Amino acid sequence: xxxxxxxxxxxxxxxxxxxxxxxxxxxxxxxxxxxxxxxxxxxxxxxxxxxxxxxxxxxxxxxxxxxxxxxxxxxxxxxxxxxxxxxxxxxxxxxxxxxxxxxxxxxxxxxxxxxxxxxxxxxxxxxxxxxxxxxxxxxxxxxxxxxxxxxxxxxxxxxxxxxxxxxxxxxxxxxxxxxxxxxxxxxxxxxxxxxxxxxxxxxxxxxxxxxxxxxxxxxxxxxxxxxxxxxxxxxxxxxxxxxxxxxxxxxxxxxxxxxxxxxxxxxxxxxxxxxxxxxxxxxxxxxxxxxxxxxxxxxxxxxxxxxxxxxxxxxxxxxxxxxxxxxxxxxxxxxxxxxxxxxxxxxxxxxxxxxxxxxxxxxxxxxxxxxxxxxxxxxxxxxxxxxxxxxxxxxxxxxxxxxxxxxxxxxxxxxxxxxxxxxxxxxxxxxxxxxxxxxxxxxxxxxxxxxxxxxxxxxxxxxxxxxxxxxxxxxxxxxxxxxxxxxxxxxxxxxxxxxxxxxxxxxxxxxxxxxxxxxxxxxxxxxxxxxxxxxxxxxxxxx
Length: 543
Known about the structure:
Blueprint: H1 2-17, H2 22-46, H3 50-92, E1 93-94, H4 98-104, H5 113-123, H6 129-137, H7 150-174, H8 178-186, H9 191-202, H10 204-220, H11 223-227, H12 233-242, H13 247-274, E2 290-291, H14 294-328, H15 334-367, H16 371-380, H17 388-402, H18 410-434, H19 438-446, H20 451-480, H21 483-488, H22 496-505, H23 509-537
Parallel strand pairs: 1-2
């Protein structure tokens, strides 16, 4: 019996150490499924007639292309201003309440852009609170700035996405070695030059990475621009596919959007690569924050509170008030319960499938790095860099060409969720597996355990927190996903995100409040994970 056990363990071990294993084949198959919709979209776009491109330029591109570029520039500037400023305040100064503020500053990540747009649209609606305040101060309501404008969209998307810049800039500033500052001070470098040449330049990789994430979210946004009637690529792709029933035109627009997206990614990598800095770990000392007096504490607190008020507190307060009014008027009915159950079930299914399918690629990337493993990891991660409408168009084109019988099925929506958000599970699992010593798995196999038993009994319990963290984030992202859900959901299958968009687009503010508030509450779950990690990095125990 012992000899047989050893033979079986050796056989499994040999399977895992072959250049190409069954696990590789399975991972390649998953990556291929994730890549097929993207390939079909690009193929369809590259094979359309030249006349279609000309028509699209005359009717769509000459409007949405400059709109999108202007939006990227304006949101980029605003997110840099807000994110870098707040990160600098909480890392370079010590004042009462700072520990709370640095966590509260990430709260806007819980609010999807379309929910924030809806909240402010209700505030600024005719007869709303904003008009009352404006008329009492300025008198003439007609001169009140409109939310339905370029600057309105820019402000909403900046308030939602600045935490990306804040989080990564904060991490970069915390990891700076104070010895560089001390050396520059001894050499007589002025304070403002030290600020630019040391603080900002050494935080450059984090700043650029955060900016790239924020701009990717702007590229992928559909609900905000659709609600505020500012035409961009995502809105145009949706209209082209659903209103004009023109899959070729939608694929062509998706191709341009993908090209801009990958241009942004390559620019980010280029600029970040050109400004890389290495710090010696052996002599590392973090910079001590400057203690502020009472007056400056008031100023810093007021700046943070002002940003958080517009980005989180005011809209959430409005949502709570309107949701309570909706409940008192019978809004918590069977229809709302059905929408909620639909959302929970489809999001849980999407998160579970994504978490399971990510395991082979994550394991191979962490344990058996090579060209094939890295390629599978990269292809499987493509979905997160693509906007929801692009993935939806690719799936619809694939189904139209190969699997007509799947059209209108819930499987298409699940496929979109998995392709779009599996990279989150992949990254979470990859980092968790990398932190587990290989010797524990080697010892298990040496004792005769097979590959599956080693994974189930040794590795899985050690990485379960990473898997769970990824599952929670994917679950919440599936709940918030709007354009892919709108385009792929079965007939009469509504989710909370869809109901917010439908009710808000018809100015039924109170009806949209309950689903919007639930989405925000769900969005707080992954933020709890982030806050715990921030607490660990700061040496604070959070239970």
